[in-house]
Design a protein that fits this description.
heterodimer; A: 584 residues; alpha+beta; Aldehyde Ferredoxin Oxidoreductase Protein, subunit A, domain 2; 6-stranded mixed β-sheet; 23 helices; B: 140 residues; Alpha-Beta Plaits; two-stranded antiparallel sheet; 9 strands; 21% strand
Chain lengths: 584, 140
């Protein structure tokens, strides 16, 4: 890496002692580039084996990459932690201004350990870490208010990232998330709960430093090449126009979209919540992550009249995308857009992962239908498929649970079903709730063997849609494809490029662009580093007790029709067996 | 030529203009940017786009105690870096916050109205207006 690059500076923060220091970790960055690669190593170093995820020693790690702040589309921060949701690897990526702010503040990674005795938030700028009293922000029902207070109190407008948790994080729901810039999330796997366990309400970070480049001419030429691809080529058009929500229509027609807890894989009443229709009637604004011209973040405006005053309206901006329309829409039988937006809004307010919450709500609905629980278990409220009002109440109760059942639900469907039954329709894979892709066996194998948490983290859904609908592949061939793709995605998340830009950043372009920042690796070497990072993640997972043979798979996936017709126990088991041999 | 904000409502907050402005130096990062994009009180309310309006009687130059900021014919100022002592009075004098600061050099960075940023705004928020001496333009 470049001599003067501050990428290798790691900021270590101790919340117990209220102290911080910086250490140069060129050793890690030169070997693993940054992002996921470096964060995995820091996690292996910092996280004591077998520790309770909520123990003070349990670390939170954030890492950005060499391209962050230098080239467009490289604005992802990788968060790594021991997941309280699954008990093994917790990894979550977020955009917004998070990565740019960390890099421009002069760091490549941040390690947070310890536990504060009172609620605090961190203010990081100009080489200083300040520990601010957040007592007054604790317990607010809407997490965005706490962010607003931090915004008004702290400096660095336009250059800062504001991370914060909501009520669910404070109450340590294991699928609580950390929100940054109001609409981006370190979702899934419970980073918000770890913040809560440390009494860390949030952090504000900003900076505007220079990243020195030696070959300035080549740098500007490479920049233009990538920028033009991002703005002019069709590669990013899907994300730019209707956004990921464009997939709702096609997955529904292909019978790959989970409906009512995957009792079905399509619905006749999809039209009002397709990406196209929501854009037509509700889209108000599109916004971007810092240093990304694509602007894939879609904000709808929800206009609701107040009952007691006909000329008084509440207008709420609500961010939506494919996964939210699936999880808080079709998965719970909601296909009315205003109802969907209202449910999304409450999920944002309490600060939980939308996919996990949607799957939890769907599972509870079915548990009630099958008389496996009673209304007393859910505080005597009425819930039914498609009824947003009932679900809005339930989201609040799960985020601040009062009954034993709701407490169990705040830990996700894997845990809740281990206590109350209903495992066969508890839609989790590796204890993590499913994303909205019932595309075929490759998708499910991807969820099970992938090192992260979602459809986008492995190529499974793509193998289903491009290959398995047309040709036969053996489970072994599918697993080989998945692992090969995993290696590439580890590199992308290590240089901190958004996976939406994977069509632009092939390993050849990665090699050329990181060279300008002093990293000399060819495509083949990068592929090998990617494989190694994937294995390092498995090292952590296995160390914490993860075993492929222990995975529980809900029967429901074998019962509901899918586009390939190939989701069988034999296919999945053979794939898992093969992956196990390879990984071991 | 004057840099102007054509339509701030189209701004998506991608900051490509800020990075472009800083990249004129050939380096990456944001240290040299003299254009600012910030949310207008939360992202959902859109963005405030801050560019130098190249005032004809520039307050920033008027308060400079060392003559480091020299008014240009037709508006705007030129920075003579060797004369600048980094006192920051110019920054305070600009009420739209368009005098930016290079923290490493501890000196202001002043827009030279080159229009490089315009080329990197994919949403036509910015424009470069041909401006005859003494004729005001309708940019914000």
């Amino acid at each position: 890496m470049m001599e003067n690059d501050t990428l290798s500076k790691v900021l270590y923060i101790d919340l117990t002692k209220k102290k911080s220091f910086v250490k140069d970790r060129k050793d890690l960055f030169e070997k693993y580039l940054g992002g996921t690669g470096v964060a995995t190593e820091l996690l292996l170093e910092e996280c004591p084996e077998g520790i309770d995820a909520f123990a003070p020693e349990s670390p939170i790690i954030f890492a950005v990459g060499p391209l962050t702040g230098a080239f467009p589309l490289a604005s992802k921060t990788c968060a790594m932690f021991k997941s309280p949701h699954t008990g093994d690897l917790g990894e979550s990526h977020a955009g917004g201004r998070s990565a740019i702010a960390i890099r421009m503040a002069g760091y490549g990674a941040i390690v947070i350990k310890g536990k504060s005795e009172l609620p605090i938030y961190l203010s990081i700028s100009n080489g200083k870490v300040l520990f601010k009293n957040a007592t007054t922000l604790w317990g607010m029902k809407d997490g965005s208010i706490a962010a607003r207070v931090m915004r008004q109190t702290e400096g660095g407008e336009g250059l800062r990232a504001i991370f914060r948790i909501g009520l669910a994080g404070e109450n340590m729901s294991t699928f609580a998330n950390v929100t940054t810039e109001t609409y981006r999330h370190f979702g899934r796997l419970g980073l918000g709960a770890i913040f809560g366990s440390k009494m860390l309400k949030g952090l504000v970070i900003s900076g505007k430093q220079m990243i020195e480049v030696t070959n300035k001419k080549a740098y500007r030429a490479m920049y233009d090449k990538i920028y033009n691809m991002a703005t002019e080529s069709p590669l990013m058009k899907k994300y730019h126009d209707v956004g990921t929500a464009i997939n709702i229509k096609s997955l529904n027609s292909a019978r790959a979209l989970p409906v009512k807890n995957l009792q079905m894989s399509s619905t006749d009443s999809i039209e009002p919540v397709t990406g196209e229709e929501i854009a037509k009637h509700h889209l108000a604004r599109r916004v971007a992550c810092a240093h990304c011209p694509v602007a894939c973040i879609h904000l709808a405006y929800l206009r609701e009249p107040y009952d007691d005053d006909p000329y008084f309206y509440k207008t709420t901006p609500v961010c939506y995308d494919f996964e939210l329309i699936y999880s808080l829409g079709t998965m719970v039988g909601i296909t009315e857009p205003k109802a969907l937006l209202k449910l999304i809004d409450i999920v944002e307010q309490v600060g939980v992962d939308a996919m996990s919450m949607g799957v939890v709500l769907a599972w509870i609905t079915e548990m009630l239908e099958k008389n496996k629980i009673t209304k007393e278990d859910i505080n005597n409220i009425n819930i039914s498929w498609g009824d947003a009002e009932g679900y809005i109440k339930l989201v609040k109760y799960i985020s601040k649970p009062t009954t034993d059942f709701l407490k169990a639900c705040s830990r996700g469907v894997s845990y809740a079903s281990s206590v109350y039954g209903g495992k066969e329709f508890a839609m989790q894979f590796g204890k993590n709730e499913m994303p909205g892709y019932h595309t075929g066996p490759a998708g499910y194998l991807g969820f099970l063997i992938g090192a992260r948490h979602s459809h986008l983290d492995n190529g499974g859904y793509s193998v289903d849609q491009k290959d398995l609908v047309k040709v036969d592949l053996s489970p072994e061939q599918v697993v080989d494809k998945l692992l090969d793709e995993e290696a590439i995605r580890q590199i992308l998340s290590s240089i901190a490029v958004c996976f939406f830009a994977r069509g632009i950043y092939g390993l050849d372009l990665v090699s050329e662009s990181i060279k300008l920042l002093g990293f000399n690796y060819d495509e083949k070497q990068l592929h090998e580093i990617g494989k190694q990072i994937h294995l390092n993640k498995y090292k952590f997972k296995m160390r914490e007790g993860f075993r492929l043979e222990k995975l529980e798979i809900p029967e429901r996936i074998y019962e509901t029709v899918d586009p390939t017709g190939k989701i069988t126990k034999e296919f999945i088991n053979r794939g898992l067996q093969y992956a196990e041999n390879l990984i071991n | 030529m004057k840099l102007a904000v054509k339509d701030a409502m189209r701004c998506v907050g991608c900051q490509s203009c800020m990075f472009a402005c800083s990249r004129r130096s050939g380096n990456a990062g944001l240290s040299n940017t003299c254009i600012g994009i910030k949310s207008a009180g939360g992202i959902s309310r859109g963005y405030t786009v801050i560019v130098c309006r190249s005032c004809e009687n520039p307050p920033c130059a008027n308060v400079c105690p060392t003559g480091a900021l020299v008014p240009k014919e037709g508006g705007g100022v030129r920075l003579i870096s060797s004369k600048c002592i980094g006192c920051g009075l110019c920054k305070d004098a600009c009420i739209i916050d368009a005098v930016f600061w290079n923290e490493q050099d501890d000196k202001p960075v002043i827009c030279v109205q080159c229009g490089y940023c315009v080329e990197y705004c994919p949403y036509e928020v910015l424009e470069l207006i041909k401006d005859k001496k003494g004729v005001s333009h309708d940019g914000e």
